[in-house]
């Protein structure tokens, strides 16, 4: 999208007008969750959270793929990347996510071949260029990245590559929403759904969620006007006692979504239970490769299926991602945990809530004291 195209969605006067409507409309306390880490960063970057009525509380959901990739999958990645003859490829954010004994940067420092790629098809190309090496792509992400990741497997199969595989960490938004709303500790009363996920999947899957939990869901983009419009439509429903699914991002999202992308997902993946970092197992919340593509499953190829690990008790990222805490509620925030020394993935990721709070100064950050 060009800058000129986006300018109206960043128009300060238009945003102020919608904020004025939100202030006039809000009569009660409400808790609204934006599901996507990109939305979290936009909200804090533009200071929208500070311009809303005091009755409205925004909490930050598990919509950052780096943040929710489980510790055991990170440890599997480390085990695979450490093996001789392996070229391990990944998006850049994943290299700094801590596992039990280090991160992918530490594997590279120890002599492992770890490369940053910008597309899974880059990893397929690397496999073509290095027939004597096993090339593994760390396939993380929500529904947004899943079609391209799936296509890399389809292309590798079409090319007859025997040295390409994918470590799959695909997760899905609707089951996570069920997990949050079904918890006895749930505080969320309205959802801002992630526009880019819905651009792929549509929003038909959210209709039964809104009906079951009697909760409004509004599909929202990432620019200031998108976000405040989504918040306004959510508050309008909350104040009126309605629970519909609305689309505040029509320039990119339709109810059916991208049918071609959904077809490739259906061809390559099947649903499975998935462990979310800090949250735990969410039934049918992930995808894995179908049996006909099992030969491209890195967990099977490198025999790391039985690696299981224990989450850290220090990091409270799981509670943050469920809307039960804010980053500033964590005793380690900005002290023991900061972008240079992250305890958890929510401080590592460029989309993580903790990183956003740190970057945009939502609380006074104390420098850690030096021992002695």
Question: In words, what does this structure look like?
Answer:
With 372 residues, the protein is α/β, with parallel strands linked by helices. It folds into 3 domains: 130 residues, Rossmann fold (3-Layer(aba) Sandwich); 150 residues, HypD, alpha/beta domain 2 (Rossmann fold, 3-Layer(aba) Sandwich), CATH 3.40.50; 43 residues, no CATH class. The protein is built from 17 helices and 11 strands.
Name some characteristics of this structure.
alpha/beta; six-stranded mixed β-sheet; 3 domains; disordered C terminus; single chain; 372 residues; 17 helices; Rossmann fold; globular; five-stranded parallel β-sheet
CATH superfamily of the largest domain: HypD, alpha/beta domain 2
> How many whole angstroms does the radius of gyration measure?
21 Å
For this structure, the CATH topology of the largest domain is Rossmann fold
Coarse structural class: alpha/beta
Q: Flag low-confidence runs.
A: 364-372
Number of domains: 3
Which term fits the overall shape? globular
The tally of helices reads 17
What gap, in angstroms, lies between the N and C termini? Answer: 53 Å
**In this structure, how is the largest beta sheet organized?**
6 strands, mixed
SSE arrangement, N to C: HHEHEHHEHEHEHEHEHHEHEHEEHHHH
Beta-strand share of residues? 15-25%
Mean pLDDT: 91
């Amino acid at each position: 999208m060009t800058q000129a195209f986006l300018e109206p969605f960043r128009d300060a006067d238009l945003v102020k007008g919608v904020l004025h409507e939100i202030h006039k409309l809000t009569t009660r306390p409400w808790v609204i969750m934006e599901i996507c880490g990109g939305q979290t960063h936009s909200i804090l970057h533009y200071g929208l959270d500070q311009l809303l009525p005091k009755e409205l509380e925004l909490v930050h959901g598990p919509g950052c793929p780096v943040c929710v990739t489980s510790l055991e999958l990170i440890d599997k990645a480390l085990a695979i990347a450490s093996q001789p003859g392996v070229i391990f490829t990944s998006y850049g954010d994943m290299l700094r996510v801590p596992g039990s004994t280090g991160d992918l940067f530490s594997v590279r420092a120890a002599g492992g071949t770890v490369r940053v790629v910008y597309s899974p098809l880059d990893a397929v190309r690397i496999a073509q260029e290095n027939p004597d090496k096993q090339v593994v792509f760390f396939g993380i992400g929500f529904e947004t990245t899943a079609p391209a990741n799936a296509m890399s497997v389809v292309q590798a199969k079409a090319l007859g590559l025997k040295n390409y595989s994918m470590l799959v960490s695909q997760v899905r938004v609707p089951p996570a929403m069920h997990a949050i709303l079904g918890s006895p500790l749930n505080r969320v009363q309205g959802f801002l759904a992630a526009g880019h996920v819905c651009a792929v999947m549509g929003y038909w899957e959210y209709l039964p969620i809104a009906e079951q939990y009697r909760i409004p869901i509004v599909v929202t983009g990432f620019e200031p006007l998108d976000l405040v419009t989504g918040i306004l439509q959510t508050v309008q429903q909350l104040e009126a006692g309605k629970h519909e699914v609305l689309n505040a991002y029509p320039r990119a999202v339709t109810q059916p979504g991208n049918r071609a992308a959904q077809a490739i997902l259906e061809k390559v993946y099947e649903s499975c239970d998935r462990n979310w970092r800090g949250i735990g197992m969410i039934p049918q919340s992930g995808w894995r490769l179908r049996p006909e593509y099992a030969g491209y499953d890195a967990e099977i190829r490198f025999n790391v299926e039985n690696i299981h690990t224990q989450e850290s008790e220090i990091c409270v990222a799981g509670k943050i991602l469920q809307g039960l805490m804010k980053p500033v509620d964590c005793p380690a925030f900005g002290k023991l945990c900061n972008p240079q020394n992250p305890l958890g993935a929510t401080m590592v990721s460029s989309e993580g809530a903790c990183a956003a709070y740190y970057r945009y100064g939502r609380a006074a950050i104390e420098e850690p004291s030096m021992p002695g």
